[in-house]
Structures are given as structure tokens and as C-alpha cells.
Amino acid sequence: MTSQQLTPQQDALPGASAQPDELSTHGLDLRYGDRIVVGGLDLVLPGGAVTAIVGPNACGKSTLLRGLTRLLAPSAGTVALDGTDIHRMSARSLARRMGLLPQQPVTPEAITVEALVRLGRYPHQRLLSPWSAGDQAAVDAALERTGTAALREQPVDQLSGGQRQRAWIALALAQDTDLLLLDEPTTFLDLRHQLDVLDLVAELHSEAGRTVVMVLHDLGQAARYADHLVVLKDGGLAAAGAPADVLDAELVKSVFDVDCRVIPDPETGTPLVIPRSRTARRNPSA
């Protein structure tokens, strides 16, 4: 694939006509050493939508997110943001466009919530430039938006799991990007805090029009909160589209090896997966 030179740091992919904040891949291979984890992936993650990436363990979900954010360089193929190869963008310009919440972020020792959130302003800082009123306003707004303003002086490592996750989301918000990527944002949280985090993500999308891409394990939550579903299996694309269009019993069996019924969620009407009990199948009278 050739590219047309735009600037020393940006290449537009030929024929690109992306919507704002649209991520796409073409022939993407991602590997660790000699092991290919994601292979030959062609994918479009629509701008202005919430996309959930789902699939069984070790299918390449988190690896794909690392590739989409340039944390892992492809061994083949491309990742594009609005038609521009992200590996032709400067790190600072990409950070101004794309915010990331990793799966298990490492918290600097003894850092407070506000100090953590202030790190999100790094892409907007210039050498020797002072901390500005605009920077502080972005931090304050992020703290308020995530309900962590009252915790600003608290050490992050003393927070509950849900509070800590909100603090990290506040960091991503302070970065002030229109594209937000979240790697398993509900991991290790109880049901209430899972819903708190997902409701917050939904509000950030609906109120500000942010494009959101998140890796989730729970198919019901993915169908409820996402406009677009990407289903991976063995490092490849099993299905992609609106949850109601792609999530059915045949797909769940093929990808997860689980027999199930898929019914409308009585609360939202979105697809709800009801697994069939293996014990009940072995003991029909139970």
C-alpha cells in the first residue's frame, strides 16, 4: 500500500473518506515475538459511536486496543485515524486526539487524585510554558464530571476500586480528546460500580459526542451500552455491526462455545444472552 505525503509526520491512506474520529485497520497483524495474536484484520470503528469489542479470553481484544493506540506496533498492515496512518502522527498530536484507559493502569506511588488527573494535560503543555487557567479548568471539569472532586486530595492507592477507576477516567477526560479507548473498564468492580462506570461512559458519549471504543467481557452490557459491536475469535473478526444485527445464539455458540438463548432485554430491548445450563443438560430432571 502506498501513501500520499501530507506532512513530515502524517500520511493519508489512499481513498480515505473517514468520518470524524473514525478508527480503521487494514491487513493488521499484531504479534508478540513469533506469535501472531491479531492477523489480517480489516475493521472500521465508526466515529461518533460507542463500540464494544468482545470475544473469549486470549482472542486478541486487549492486543487490538494496544495496536489501535500505538502501544504495539503492527508487524503488517495499518491503523488509521480519520484516514491518516497513526504511525505517521507525532506522539503529542495523537495524544491530543486519543485518550486511553489501560486495563490495569499503574498508579504512581502516593499520587493524589488531582495530581493524577493533571497528567492528562501533558499533551497540551509546551516546553517552559506555565500551568494555565485553561489547564486547571480542564482538570476541575474532569473531576466534577466523574464525581471525584471531593477526592482530589486523596491518595489514589487508598481509593476503592470504583473510585480509582473514575479517577483514571478523569485523567482521560482532562486530556480533552474526542476519542476515548477503555480496556476492560469494569474489571474487578462489583455490579453497582460496573454500571456506574458504563453509565458515565454513555453520558460522555451522548453529551459531548465522543467516540468511545471499549473492551468488555459481559455480552449483555456490551449490547446495552454499545451502538456497534466487534466480535473477535482467534485474532480475527467473527462479526461486526449493531448488537441486534450480529448477536444471536449461533454466533455465541461459534465464538464462545456456549449454548444459549438470545432474547430482548426486558429493560432496554437490546439483546440479552441467556446461557443454557450444562448441568441441566446432563441432568434433565434437575
Describe the structure.
This protein is α/β, with parallel strands linked by helices and 286 residues long. The protein is built from ten helices and 14 strands. The chain has helices at 61-68, 91-97, 113-118, 133-145, 161-174, 191-208, 219-225, 243-246, 249-256, 278-282, and strands at residues 4-7, 10-12, 23-32, 35-45, 50-54, 76-81, 84-85, 98-101, 179-183, 211-215, 228-233, 236-241, 260-264, 271-275. The protein has a six-stranded mixed beta sheet, sandwiched between helices. A four-stranded antiparallel beta sheet has the order 4-3-6-7, with helices on one face. It has a two-stranded antiparallel sheet with strand order 1-2. A hairpin with a 2-residue loop joins strand 1 (4-7) and strand 2. Helix 4 packs antiparallel against helix 5 (161-174) and helix 5 (161-174) packs parallel to helix 6 (191-208). The chain is globular, with a radius of gyration of 20 Å. It starts with a strand and ends with a helix. Mean pLDDT is 88; it is low at 1-17.
Distance between the termini: 59 Å
Total beta strand runs:
14
Largest sheet data = 6 strands, mixed
Shape descriptor reads globular
Supply the number of helical segments.
10
Radius of gyration (CA) equals 20 Å
Q: How do the strands of the widest beta sheet line up side by side?
A: 8-9-10-5-11-12
What proportion strand? 25-35%
As a percent range, the share of helical residues equals 25-40%
Q: Give me the secondary-structure category.
A: alpha/beta
Order of helices and strands: EEEEEHEEHEHHHEHEHEEHHEEH
Weakly predicted, low-confidence segments? 1-17
Mean pLDDT across every amino acid position: 88
